[in-house]
């Protein structure tokens, strides 16, 4: 099996300085290169790029029901270890500016795919999900 390679995601933000604070300080993602219209971040080993789009307007929310929650679509995120999830959860819960969509909880409790999950919005309204499995073999289980 080949080693997992990092993914790359470019996404719009309406305020680069707000994105810098959120991704760099709140989420503690190391910053990479930047220009006047974009900033690279190391998003838990993956490359994300916040691209300035000053015309970005909020779109109507689309949600899908998942285990009793209204999950925002689209969203992006990362699967963390349980320890990383707990650390991030603590940091986000201590931040009064965290814009929760779904507060931290256990989804599919006692079922295949049981996982810790939480959803929040960045300052531009992009939805992010962070999740963790006690057993990583459950990630793609049926």
Automatic annotation (TrEMBL):
Pfam families: Glyoxalase. Residues 8-130 form the Glyoxalase/fosfomycin resistance/dioxygenase domain. It comes from the Bacteria. InterPro entries: Glyas_Bleomycin-R_OHBP_Dase (IPR029068), Glyas_Fos-R_dOase_dom (IPR004360). SUPFAM superfamilies: Glyoxalase/Bleomycin resistance protein/Dihydroxybiphenyl dioxygenase (SSF54593). This is Glyoxalase/fosfomycin resistance/dioxygenase domain-containing protein.
